[in-house]
Amino acid sequence: MTRSPTFLPAWRALTGEAQTLGKRHLRELFATDPGRVPSLTQRAGDLLLDFSKQRITAHTLTLLHDLAREAGVTKQIDELFRGELVNVSEGRAALHMALRAGSKDEYFFSGKNVVSAVALERMKMRGFCQSLHSETWVGCSGKRITDVVNLGIGGSDLGPRMAAQALSSRARQGLKVHFVSNVDGADLGSLLPSLDPQTTLFIVASKTFTTQETLANARSALAWLEVGLDVTDVLTRHFVAVTANVAAAGAFGIPEENTFAFWDWVGGRYSLWSSVGLPLALAIGMDDFEAMQDGARKMDLHFRDSPIEKNLPVTLALLDIWNGNFLGAETRAVIPYSFSLGLLPSYLQQLEMESNGKAMDRDGQKLEASSSAVVWGSAGTDAQHAYFQLLHQGGRLVPCDFIAFAEADYPLPGHHDRLLASCFAQSEALMSGRSEDEARNELIAQKYSAEDIARLLPHKIFPGNQPSTTMLLPSLSPEALGMLIALHEHKVFAAAAIWGINPFDQWGVELGKQLASKLLPALTDGNEAPGMNPSTHQLIRYCRDRR
Ligand code: F6P
């Protein structure tokens, strides 16, 4: 039995809708419907989602809601929250919502409410933060810890790294938190000279505790400490682990009391809310970390309890499906007009592309429709001066998500309004474009000659009709950030529910890892495995010959 949504009646109706609507310009959609903005705006708490600049009408939205209903989204949300084994290929639940649960909430896994176990681990985190902040926890030589280095990659890096930068205006003084993820020695190697082994603590964050990049960095960090400290028990005061594989952390030498555990039912890219958030909690304090969890919890309740028609994550999922499957967009740009949120696009790349970058449904049947868009982007206004030319005049359909905050996190006089004006101007320019007549009139007003007008006119026309959604929040507070992240987590789930895919596995990253471990001996010792691809052989030879 196929789960492909392409066989659903709403899918067929939407195919027809795309053909009709495809011919209409967003300018016309605005001009012909005075109620467009209220009907294509939704709210959850203080979060405002304006998707009136998307290439849809209220009728399209109704059809999209039909699609969500026919695909059984509500039932699947229910299964997620009930702790069912929604990660079917790995036989796991996905209960990241339990990590930000309130004390009276209930999340069951295998018949057991996990909320108290989560609270215990959170208390352990709080205790550790307090002892480091109060300088009760000191290094081997009795000096206070001034620098914390998180060694992790993917989900064990991107979340806390992104959030620590996002909330940097709230960072505690006296403790610097660094993130090292890449196995390229340039990452750790360029940081170490600025650190003092006596005052540095490493967090080894790895759900599996088998990830080669992280283990290579952990071994190098340990070697650096052992040389720098001249004592044997550096692991007890300078290393902690964050993992779901406590035994492997123990085998590495990290004592159990220094190990923060989490559970198999937490996916790596959903793990920020667990002890993977430890470097963030150290950077901003546990109270702010919990405020971020509270924001995410608000979004959990909104997602669980709101009808499809008012459900923001479902709306975002439907817009992605509309743009990707019906209008043919291959990518989506995420442009936070917030310097502090500059790492959000990278974080969302993993969240969306590792979750939903799949061409088979959860039963292993080929998907009849494309799934996740290629997600990319960076902070505005820098983005404007880099690649917005292509968005405005490149002729490709690139839906954009704009994210902005009413208030500044670093309030320098005169800056924030300029930032917001740029954000709103870009979404409007992308939407409306500039017609031939408008371009000509502008050139005439600027007193260009007829000859110059003829020459310049084609370059001055902007087709517009480029769709975008704008998300607004009052300020980049921990709570707002929590809401925003959970909004995207649940958007990913809702889209997967419609496509019929499992967003919680990532088999596609295995092959490269396996090949890399086979190729390593060829690079280090020249031991080439039989049957090596001739191109790969050439690349390895080149490197060996030049060492
Ligand atoms: O390579 C993919 C991946 O498995 C991600 O899903 C995960 O977040 C990352 O590697 C790191 O894994 P771990 O936390 O187990 O080191």
Structure description:
There is one protein chain. The chain is of the alpha/beta class and 547 residues long. The chain contains 22 helices and 13 strands. It has helices at residues 9-21, 26-32, 36-39, 58-70, 73-81, 115-133, 158-166, 185-191, 212-229, 234-238, 246-252, 278-284, 286-305, 312-326, 344-356, 388-393, 415-432, 436-445, 450-460, 478-499, 510-525, 534-545; strands at residues 41-44, 47-50, 108-109, 112-113, 147-151, 176-180, 200-205, 239-243, 259-261, 331-336, 374-376, 400-405, 468-473. α7 (158-166) links the parallel β5 (147-151) and β6 (176-180). α1 runs antiparallel to α4 (58-70) and α18 crosses α19. The longest helix has 22 residues, at 478-499. The radius of gyration is 25 Å and the shape is globular. The site of 6-O-phosphono-beta-D-fructofuranose has 14 residues, from loops. 6-O-phosphono-beta-D-fructofuranose binds at residues 153-156, 206-208, 211, 214, 268-269, 354, 506, 509.
Biggest sheet descriptor: 6 strands, mixed
Spatial strand sequence of the major β-sheet: 1-2-13-12-10-11
- In helices, the fraction of residues equals 40-55%
Radius of gyration: 25 Å
Counting DSSP H or I runs of 4 or more residues, the number of helices is: 22
SSE-based structural type? alpha/beta
Average pLDDT number: 96
Poorly predicted tracts of residues: none
Overall body shape: globular
Distance, first to last CA: 56 Å
